[in-house]
Amino acid sequence: MHTTLNKVPQVISSQELLEHWQGHRALTRRTIEAFPEEAFFNHTIGGMRTFAEMVMELLGIAGPGIKEIATGNTAPLNEHLEHGNKKEVLLELWDKATEEINTFWPQIKEEQFQKKIKIFGQYEGTVISSIFYFIDNEIHHRGQGYVYLRSLGIEPPAFYER
């Protein structure tokens, strides 16, 4: 008797998804770098938050979110980080978050991606829907950063150079 495993075809591997996200993270980092220091912390349009505030949100989500998914240890979302109004501090935190993602990502098993979770103890979904949110939210805020840069007369990094 011959048995066949019913395995769902995979379009992208976990490693490819990580590389895709890290490409976006590298582009977002270059976007942060493009901002003049004062504008990074003070420039707004139409009631939107400063790009620094958006970056702190992204920092509160990415590394801690992947760590939570990998370890199962829930912590509250923290979007308020000490930075002393220095862009270089947030860039250092960005790099640490990248390392944290790279450290914890391999601990997420393939079968976990469809698991239901409540990320940060409050947002229900699956592991994969949470990761897609992390990526989509970053792209969304980077787009806002591009608008800010253009309003300052600064050409943002090419979005396709990831």
In percent terms, what proportion of residues is strand?
under 5%
Provide the structure class. mainly alpha
Regarding CATH, which class?
Mainly Alpha
Rg from Cα: 18 Å
Which architecture name does CATH use? Up-down Bundle
Instruction: Give me the strand/helix succession.
Output: HHHHEEH
- Which regions contain 5 or more consecutive residues with pLDDT less than 50? none
Q: Work out the helicity level.
A: 55-70%
CATH level-four homologous superfamily name: dinb family like domain
- Give the overall pLDDT as a whole number: 94
Strands side by side in the biggest sheet? 1-2
Q: Mind summarizing the main beta sheet?
A: 2 strands, antiparallel
Q: How many helical elements?
A: 5
Count of extended strands: 2
**Annotated CATH topology:** Four Helix Bundle (Hemerythrin (Met), subunit A)
Distance between the termini: 49 Å
Instruction: Count the domains.
Output: 1
Q: Specify the overall morphology.
A: globular
